Amino acid sequence: MKAMRINVSGRVQGVCFRASARDEARRIGVTGWVRNLSDATVEVFVQGPEEKVNRLLSWCYQGPPGAFVTVVDYTEMPVDLSMNTFSIMY
After folding, report:
1. Mapping DSSP to helix (H, G, I), strand (E, B) and coil, where does residue 57 land?
2. Cβ–Cβ contacts within 10 Å for residue 49, how many?
């Protein structure tokens, strides 16, 4: 199991980034959450098998149609075994 926090910058709010990230994460089969931050970035917490976590990280470099990603920063985090889905946090 691997967990990471991902911060995505660029035109990533108002382009369905959160909903698309949730859908992609569920399709891949990882758990976690995604939320908008007040500095106009998007934060993602994702965990699961390393290959699947890396697939969502790769997706974050492009995002959904309409997004324009300029920077992706990520940090490995402790795994939270209490999570069982991927959701949008408000």
Report:
1. helix
2. 13
Structure tokens at 90: 């408000």
CB atoms within 10 A of CB 25: 26
Kindly report the number of other CB atoms within 10 A of residue 6's CB atom.
Answer: 24
Give the tokens for residue 89: 């946090």
Residues annotated as catalytic are: 18, 36
| CA–CA separation, 32 and 17 (whole Å) | 15
User: Which of the following CATH numbers is that of domain 2-88: 3.40.50.970, 3.90.1750.10, 3.30.70.100, 3.40.50.720?
Assistant: 3.30.70.100
Domain ranges in the chain? 2-88
Summarised one tens digit per residue, pLDDT across range 16-63 is 999 999 999 999 999 999 999 999 999 999 999 999 999 999 999 999
